[in-house]
What we know:
The chain is of the alpha/beta class. It folds into 2 domains: 3-169 and 343-360, 3-Layer(aba) Sandwich (Rossmann fold); 172-340, Rossmann fold (3-Layer(aba) Sandwich). The protein has helices spanning 15-27, 59-68, 116-134, 148-158, 196-207, 226-235, 249-258, 273-280, 293-296, 309-321, 323-340, 343-360, and strands at residues 3-10, 30-36, 50-52, 77-81, 95-99, 142-145, 164-165, 183-189, 214-220, 241-245, 261-264, 285-288, 303-306. The strands form 2 sheets. The protein has a 7-stranded parallel beta sheet with strand order 3-2-1-4-5-6-7. The chain has a 6-stranded parallel beta sheet with strand order 10-9-8-11-12-13, with helices on both faces. Strand 12, helix 9 (293-296) and strand 13 (303-306) form a beta-alpha-beta unit. Helix 5 packs parallel to helix 6 (226-235), helix 5 (196-207) crosses helix 10 (309-321) and helix 8 crosses helix 11. It is globular and about 60 Å long. The two termini are 18 Å apart. The mean pLDDT is 91.
Amino acid sequence: xxILIAQPYLVSYGGAEKFVLKLAQHYDAKVSVVKYDxxxxxGEFKNVDIxxxxxxxxNFKLGAYYWNLKVPWNYDLIISxxxxxxxxxxxxxxxxxxxxxxxxxxxxxxxxxxxxxxRFSYFIGNMGYRFLLSKLTNKFEVVxxxxxxxxxxxxxxxxxxxxxxxxxxxxxxxxxxxxxxNYFLFVGRLDPQKRIELAIRAYKxxxxxxxxxxxxLVLSGSAADTYxxxxxxxxxxxxxxxxxxxxxxxxxxxxxxxxxxxxxxxKNESFGLVPIEAMASYKPVIAFNEGGPKETIVNGQxxxxxxxxxxxxxxxxxxxxxxxxxxxxxxxxxxxxxxEFSWQVFFKKFDKLIYKAYKAKEK
Length: 363
């Protein structure tokens, strides 16, 4: 089967990009992108058949591009990945629409820490995208998403009840444990939605009781981002908070392998790849009790689900003072991922959706 994956950009080290990479490798699929920068995303894409349009379009033009696109390449099925690539269904079929993140509320942009005109532009683009997507909702052969949390929101937004849930996975053999060094770890994109400042505040609260542990922030993005100004202010003069920028996959796995535990602070994350990568590395995860982590973390066994910065700081202190429990939780975390979140488990389910979408065209 000839599969084409539609992905707007490949210019970062994110969960959605990793998801596309695994799909492309598993199905030997072509990936159609508007913009691809091999220096800013996973190096393994160099071995993937990428069709690059060589453009960098604004949100307005990007939506119009996919809405009007009539795919000229041979394919049996298109997998749309990340908005607004799902608008490709207007002139093409069959399409398996995979949604990583529910469509944000129209006022969501005004809650972000970005300049006003960027927020306003985001708002207008979001409104236009929602209108166009509403015209296609019932045309998709299959709609799938990455969590039950996401599904419940999408059922209301898309007015479709037949949304499938398939949790993404990790390559188990790639993740390992070296030891439990004296540092807590945060991994994420430089984005206000990741709420990096909350991880820093939790660490500061913990730091008042225990100065033997450091905080390592592994960030993807650029220090020129205006959101980083907020992060710098949060860090202040604390020299035990270390930042590593845009590390490659191999180095990141090594950092995971040596951490004590991982902090996850994203706002209502639809799924969250970082927690399962951490658990695959035998590390407990301390995450806010919202969104996808409620489906991936077993509270009290593979990590902790917390309701406040203060609660996160307390759990950090608990783990710092109980290394044997850290090790025990880490082992349980690894077993949990092996049972529920391997790529083998994912593709066993996703293969059925591929077949379902392909057969739907024949009806």
